[in-house]
Every structure is written in C-alpha cells, then in structure tokens.
Amino acid sequence: MFKLITENWTLKLLSLVFALMLWFFIMGERRLEVNYRVPLELQNLPRELMVANEIPSMVDVRISGPRTLLMKVSPNDISITVDLTGLNPGLTSFRRLEERLNLPSGLRVTRLSPSFVDVRLERVQQKTVPINILLTGDPMGGFGVGTVRAIPDQVAIEGAESELKNVTNVTTNEVDLSGVNSSFSLIVPLQHQGRFSWFKDESTTEIQVEIIAVESAAEDGQGPIE
Asked: Does the N terminus or the C terminus of the chain have fewer Cβ atoms within 10 A?
C-alpha cells in the first residue's frame, strides 16, 4: 500500500495541486446574487430651488456576478447618484436607476426597487404669518385673564412655494393658566407642522399674560334682590 502511495508521488502531487486550483477557479467564477441597500444621493441642487416631495433615501438592489468580484464589493463603496444640474421647477422622473449605480465591470443589476424616482423641485419662498396663542386652564378663583400678547406676534416661514400658500398662521405650545394669581411672561416654542417648510429664524416667542382681580357680584353691592 505504501508503495502505491509513494510511486510517482511527484505526478500525483502535481495532479492534486491542479485539482485544487481547478476547484478554486470554479468556485471563484461561480455566479452569485447578493442583495444590498444602497443610498440614493441627490447632487447639484440648483440655487433657490428645493426638493418638495418625499424621496427614498435607500434603494434595494440585487447584484449578480462572479463570486470573486462580489466578494470585493463593499456596501459602503456603492451608491446611486441623481444629478439635478440645470433642472427647472417642476416634476422630473429619473428612470433606469441601475445605470446610475457605480458598479465594477463584470457585475450587473438583476433587481432594483424602486426602479425610478420622481423629483419635484420648487422655488424657496418666504412668508410672514401671525402667531396664535394657545391658552389652557383657569386662573385662581377671584382672578381673570386680562391682556395676552406675543412678542413678536409674527414669524417668518420659509419653504416650498406650494406649501406656503396654505400656511395662514402658527400656534404656540400650550400656556397653562391653572391656578395663577399674578401676571407673568415666558418663552414658548412655536408649532409648525410643515413637511417642506420651516421657521426661517426664530422658532419661539415671548408670551405676556396679564392676570387681574375679578370682583364678585356681592362685593359690587349687586347681590340678589328679595
């Protein structure tokens, strides 16, 4: 048995090496499919314009290719770039996103979701709107609310032109008057639920609340008549 093993050992060793090389080659060239989540990047947004619709931040991509190439692909190295250079206000559809994927040669995309993206560009506008003060609760018995004012009483909103058309005012956070018996002031945040608009500068205001004593009817000498 030993003689059979050692006989022509050089040739047998070369055969083994060749077989291993062939196996590694076949395994390395076997085509695989791998799924990735790839970032979608918008570049070169024209000045004075903004994106005024929801854009997916990630795209699901299935990539096919030789195993040796796929092993070298890192999710951090691939992305889909959409160039907005020269676009005017309006809706633009970018299709065949797979052609915008920076893949090494030898790999191809077999599935992509979403396969296209719509980008709506609008001009950035500014609008000044009044501040509505939201009061809750009641002062202590014998006291009432006098003058209430916001300083400033208006605020600038900036954002997509179409959204600003529907913005008529903003509201403060609740100002609780429960149990108070004296005038006070405080800084409160402002509320704005815009999807494509925001406060340009300030997002707070000072609320000044005057609390006054309220005389009862009996104290005024106007009790019930018998």
From this structure: C
- Give the residue numbers spanning the domain of 61: 31-115
**Which pair of tokens denotes residue 49?**
């314009």
Please state, in angstroms and rounded to a whole number, the distance separating the CA atoms of residues 50 and 27.
Answer: 49
Residue 144 and residue 98 in contact, taking contact as beta carbons nearer than 8 Å: no
Residues 81 and 64 in one domain: yes
Residue that is last in its domain, among 115, 136, 156: 115
The two tokens of residue 216 are: 């009862």
- Using the predicted structure, report yes or no on whether residue 196 has a pLDDT greater than 90: yes
Predicted TM-score of the model (pTM): 0.71
Is 11 contained in some domain? Answer: no
pLDDT reading at 20 higher than 90: no
